[in-house]
Structure formats: structure tokens, C-alpha cells
Prior knowledge:
Layout (H helix, E strand, L loop, with lengths): L3 H17 L17 E4 L1 H7 L3 H11 L7 E7 L2 E6 L1 H15 L13 E5 L14 H16 L3 E6 L6 H13 L2 H6 L1 H18 L2 H14 L3 H25 L5 E2 L9 H10 L3 E7 L15 E7 L10 E5 L6 H16 L3 E5 L5 H13 L6 E4 L4 E3 L2 E2 L10 H16 L6 H21 L7 E2 L2 H4 L7 H19 L16 H11 L1 H11 L2 H21 L8 H24 L9
Parallel strand pairs: 4-5, 4-10, 5-6, 10-11, 12-14
Antiparallel strand pairs: 1-3, 2-3, 7-8, 8-9, 12-13
Helix pairs in contact: 6-8, 6-9, 9-10, 12-13, 14-15, 17-20, 17-21, 18-20, 18-21, 19-20, 20-21
Amino acid sequence: MKYALDTAHEQIQNILESATGSSSFEMKTPPPNVEADIAVPMFRLAKEKKENPVALAQRLAGEISLEGTLLCDATVTGGFLNFKLATGPFLDRVFADFSARGESFGGSEQGDGKTIVVDFSSPNIAKPFSVGHLRSTVIGHSIVKIYRFLGYTVVGDNHIGDWGTQFGKLMLAFELWGDRETVAANPIRELLDLYVRYHDEAESDPALDEQARSWFRRLEEGDPKARETWRWFREVSWEEFDRIYRLLGVEFEEVLGESFYNDQLDQVVEQAFQSGLAEWGEIEARGGKEGEGEDSPEAMEKVALIHLRDHGIETPLLIQKSDGTSLYATRDLATIRHRIETWAPEAIIYVVGGEQKLYFQQVFKAAELLGLEANCVHVPFGLIRLPKGKMSTRKGRVIFLEDVLEEAVRRAEAVLEERDLSDEEKTEIARIVGIGAVKYADLSQTRTKDVLFDWEKMLNMQGDSAPYLQYAYVRIQSILRKAAGMPRGQAVSSPRSLGHPQELTLVKTLAGFPGTVRAAATGYTPHVIAGYLISLARDFSSFYNQVPVLKAETPELAATRLELCRRTAQVLEKGLDLLGIECPERM
């Protein structure tokens, strides 16, 4: 179905196409000082027709008919042709849209029959789930929810990092300096200490790198000791991950580690060679000694690689080491093949940091050349940085995400301390508010920007924050509860009884929700929904402060304003749900 604003846009498109013969017009929201609801720039069309854009807009405003549409007036501001929505018909249509769609208002069926895979979160085992993992987890989870709301079948895939040379490093560190009982008592933090120590020691003893590679070869070859140690690391890691996912309310349809694809890697490499894409080459070895030249055997390493320079990518993609061990790219190519064969997705969306841009360009192009036909999309995001710079597991400069979430809940509990709530209610509300505050602080940001980690900003309970939106929802629920206890007779809502400017503004903002959801999906930008919800909450606050609801002039008007309150609460709740944030019933 088409929503009210969609219909208005389509009507403008048809009217202007009929009047000009052109078929493409851009719909914009005019600035606040322009008394209109939809603005159409005339500059491109004026250039095509060799007319002055202002004159063109004025001519069209005088020629077109808006009869039988949701529009009532056409005016000109500069080179823009502006349209106003016809109040009565538009109100009727918005309320009818809510009645027709019910709780699914804002969603659609555009994704019917289509599957999308979203690769997100993807922490490495045996490493802490730090605040640095927050962005991929909450952005990816929101994208899953947004696309599902638009009718797609969505597979949220947590591609756990449980394979690779780094595990050789950790197993060597555990063998040299680890103690099983000590690690068992506090697994993740002890394993982090071992990993950090390995890199400190390797700076002065490069021979450790070769020993670490040897451990990983043993793992790939199925050595019992290596496999047993690796499985233990994986088990204790997942226990922590699962606890944090439950705190965040994040679930996945698929959780497959990189190790799942281990028996498919030879096939990927073989196909690359058979197709003529891959060849053996040499790169500078990371373990080369200081002072050795480029031609020194110890300073170079033989690798299988795919050259991509003919496709505008100068850096080759490495797919296998000379000792037969796999690389990230080998496993990612096998993963793409598996996803195509299993789900035949419309798109595979990778929610991974922006620093991996080149790598994904390489992998996606290599997959295409190998005949793996998939619409692979990298959705990059900025890093969360500590005040002193980028987070680094190797350097041990990590803030544990679980600590952040627990602190957020504690701060929410402090705010609720004086409220007239039971202890059980305070505990549950503090969880909802605290976790929501952390998620919103991330999701309200433009995802491509870096976020400086700051306790005060992240846990701010005022202003542009989840608690502000949650409180708006709670206030509406309080109004509805009061109304339920008041005698209202047989009065029913009548959209055309609304006429106050704040009422009309609120209805128009509500009507913008479906377009906002689609825009967030198209750009993979949850912050678009966050910004919309803030506007909606502020418009509701203005409406509530200026227009009596429970004491409206007539029972019919009271019923209509209550309906407007209920629909606002519905959109606030659904919008926050698309961000992965819950709404409490009281605060």
C-alpha cells in the first residue's frame, strides 16, 4: 500500500510530468520559513528547457490543477515550486493509513520474497568483547530490524573470528606463560594479558612469530593438542559473548565461526588457480630481521595472490601462504559461496569498520571474478576511540563493553532512586533505560564518523537521548491510562475535528515515519530514525503543552486527540524498537 505522503508525492510527479513531459522530479522538505509542505526544485528542468527557474516555477503554478488530490496550493519561492497538503483529505488519509496498517504502520512488503544476509558483530574468540565491538553490533542489529520491518527475510549472521594466525600466537603464549587454573578463573581478561604479553615479547624476539605460525599450522592440520586448546578458548569466549548479547537484547539467525569454512578453503584456492586468477608471488615477510634487504630469503614470503590492478585495485588479494595456511580472504570467499548456496540473498551486507574499505573492495571484486554472483555491500562505520587514540587489543588499551553496560544501568538506577517505584520495577526500568542510553548514544551518530568514547556523553540521560524518547512514550501511556478511567460516552475520533497548528504538525510528522524507515534502509543509516524520533517527541511535547487532551472542548475532539496520542506512542515504540531499544511503561 502507498502511504499518505507517498500518494502526495506521486500526485505531484504525475501532475508535473503531464505539464512538462519530464519524468523525474525531486521532492524536498521546504525550510521552516516557507509556508509549504513539499518543495520541488526547478533548476535541472529549467536548464533543459532553457528557461529561468523562477519563471518556470511561476508558469507551472498558474497552469496546474490540484483538484482531487491531497494538495491544495502551489506557490513559488526562488526556483522552487511549493505545495501545501489539503488539511481535511490529508488528515483522513493518515488516520486511514494507521487503521489499515495497525501496529505495522511504517513498514511495507517491498522485501517480500527477498532475502538479505547481514554480517555483523563478529568478535574474535579469546579476546574481550570491548566497547569497540559496540558499533558493529548495534548498527547491524538495527539494520536487521529495519529490513525485516520492510518485509525482507533477514539472516543476521555472526561471523565469529575463531581462526587465523592470531590463535597460533595465543596458543604459543598460553604454552609459554599461561596457567590453566588462572585462565579458567577469569578467562577473557587472562587471555587478553597473554595476547598483550606475546606482542610485547615479539617486538624483541621476532622468532616468536614463526613459532606462532607453526601453532596455527598444527591447528589447521588437526593436531589434537592445538584443537583441544582452541576449542576451550572458543567455549569460554562464547560464554562471555552470549552474556553480553543477552544484555543488549541482540539475537542472530546464524552463528558460524571462520573455522566452519575450513574444509572449503582448498576448493577456493584451487578454483582461483584453475581460472587463471591466482599466481604465486612474494611479499615482505612480517618476521624479517632488521637490516635485511628486500632480496633476503628471510625478509620475503611466498604467497598465493590475485592481482586486481586491471580492475582499478593496485593491492593484490592474498589467499594462501606457501605453507598452506589460509588467510582472512580465503575464508571470506568461502563464506560468500556458502551464503549464496544457502540463501541466494538479494544482498550480503557487511557491517564492518571503515578501515577495512580496501580489503572489502578486493574481496568483492575477487568473488565476482570467481563467478560468485552476489550483491555484496560494505557498510562502514567510524571507530570508537579512547581519548588517547584508537583502541588496540595488542596494546591492552581496552574498555570492556560489559563494564560500560553495567555502569549505564547503575547510573540509571541512581536517577530512579527517588521515584515511587518498587525495587523490582526500578531494576527492570534501570536495565531498559541504561542499555537504551548506550545504544542510542551510538546509533544517533552518523555511522561513518568516529565516536570519541566519553562516559558522560554516552550515558547522558537528558536531551538528545534514549531516556528522553522513552519518557515521551511513558508520558503518553500515563495519559492513556487516565483516559481509560474517565467516562467518554460513545464519542469516536474524527480526523477533521483537528485544526490546531500543533495538531497538524504532529500528524504531518507521523506521516513521515514510513519514508524515514525506507531512507534508513537505503542508506544503512539508523541515525536517520533516531533524528526523526527526536523531532516526533518534541512535536508531541509542543502539542501536549498547547492543546488540552483529556479536557478537550468536545467528546469527539478528546477522542481524536487521544487517538493522536496513541499513534504517537505507537511510532515512538516502533522507532525505538528498530534501533533495538525497549520502552518501559513507567519511569
